[in-house]
Amino acid sequence: MSDARPAEAAARPADTAPATAPVLAVRDLSVRFRMRGGRHIAAVTAATFDLPAGECLALVGESGCGKSVLASALLGLLPGNAQTAGRALLGDTDLLAADEKTLARTVRGRRVGLVPQSPAAHLTPVRTVGDQLGETLRELTGVRKPDLDKAVLAAAERASFPAGHLDRYPHELSGGLAQRAATALALVGDAPLLLADEPTTGLDRDLVHRTVDELRRHVDAGHALLMITHDLAAAERVADRIAVMYAGRVVELADARAFFGAPGPRHPYARGLLAALPERDFTPIPGMPPELGDLPRGCAFAARCAHAAEACDAQPVFADGIACHYPPDRRAAGRAPHPFPEEHTGA
Ligand SMILES: Nc1ncnc2c1ncn2[C@@H]1O[C@H](COP(=O)(O)OP(=O)(O)OP(=O)(O)O)[C@@H](O)[C@H]1O
């Protein structure tokens, strides 16, 4: 890909398996929306992953695959027609079971910081960015005048928000500046877990680099980062591991260097995602994702998959980092019947 990883990222070991208890442990997290007429939309199904301190997990996948709904579930910000199942443990707090008072007083901002997908809507419209940063700093860090102004400047600087714009109201900001203001606010509380939902939207490439490098510094300082993104170049630059979502399910969990380098992604959908990039094959995945209100019984990717076979009529179990009946390595190892003998060359 065109973006080189910063030196410290390249120096990280390929084996990023968690050594300590995860900051966040997600188990079989499912979210579905009740619709009129008794219909349901299965936005997230059985997502399971761990996120340890000092690690960035990038959640990638096409628009509408459930990434933001998963993040909203972790913050208790789902709309009223949502039903959840499973667990999302932040320490000993199950974020799916916690009441609103607990989430508002002790979780959001303090234990989980959020860089929202729509920063303009997230910022308070009637207060300047400087005021909002000052108030958040007072509330979350206890800093008071005369140190407050200096702390506001430092908080803005962390997200490359220009000091000369601190007296502006959100409606006076470009999309990129609003994004940086929201990132600055999210970093203030020094929360052990940061959720960043498309943190590079609206930024030019230089600012993308500065933003993700700041997020990486946050991770290297010992925080955990769940970054939701369409931007695979940004994911490559910042992430330790990649979670690929398709039609509401995590279909592959991989070490980022193996994913973007060799041997590459294992799930046919993940391979298609990378191959679609202009700097790679620039070949789109044929077809469209299924409706989340009308998912097939078996593998949701089978209709678009060149490797689909009879077994794909059943839902593949997620095992060894992948949910696929015929990932290339299992085909090569002969652990599953091989449907494409001509590919079985050991390559
Ligand atoms: N309140 C709701 N009621 C019904 N369906 C919803 C609701 N909120 C989200 N959805 C559906 O859940 C699915 C997942 O949406 P989500 O926003 O998580 O996708 P995404 O992967 O984050 O995509 P994008 O990157 O475009 O935001 C979509 O089909 C969306 O229409």
UniProtKB/TrEMBL annotation:
PROSITE patterns: ABC_TRANSPORTER_2. Keywords: ATP-binding, Cell membrane, Membrane, Nucleotide-binding, Transport. Residues 26-272 form the ABC transporter domain. The keyword Nucleotide-binding applies. It is found in: Cell membrane. It is a peripheral membrane protein. SMART domains: AAA. It comes from the Bacteria. Pfam families: ABC_tran (PF00005), oligo_HPY (PF08352). InterPro entries: AAA+_ATPase (IPR003593), ABC_Ni/Peptide_Import (IPR050388), ABC_transporter-like_ATP-bd (IPR003439), Oligopep_ABC_C (IPR013563), P-loop_NTPase (IPR027417). GO terms for molecular function: ATP binding. Its main location: membrane. SUPFAM superfamilies: P-loop containing nucleoside triphosphate hydrolases. CDD domains: ABC_NikE_OppD_transporters. NCBIfam families: oligo_HPY. Belongs to the ABC transporter superfamily. This is ABC transporter ATP-binding protein. It comes from Streptomyces cremeus.
